[in-house]
Design goal:
Elements: H1 2-12, H2 30-40, H3 44-52, H4 58-83
Helix pairs in contact: 2-3, 2-4, 3-4
Length: 86
């Protein structure tokens, strides 16, 4: 039975049909996403698309720049906390 499935998959060119998806999911700061969506009067999905680089417009570039400005201080605080001995 296994040989038949492999044979069918290799004929169709789908020998990776059983593999798990390898696309990395990005996680964003939800508080910043909510604030930016309210500030620019857009949906949270649009803000995520802007930050990931899927959208190309002046508003998208502004949102991405603003997200990075708001997210960098929190990332630096986390790094400082990790580096400090208890």
């Amino acid at each position: 039975m296994l040989k038949i499935i492999f044979y069918i998959c290799s004929i169709n060119g789908t020998n990776k049909a059983m593999d798990k998806p390898t696309k990395k999911r990005n996680s964003y700061n939800t508080e910043i996403i909510k604030v930016l969506s309210e500030e620019f009067v857009v949906t949270e999905r649009f803000v995520r698309m802007c930050v990931s680089g899927d959208k190309q417009s002046l508003t998208a570039e502004t949102i991405k720049k603003k997200y990075n400005e708001l997210a960098n201080p929190s990332q630096k605080a986390i790094e400082n906390f990790k580096n400090q001995p208890l």
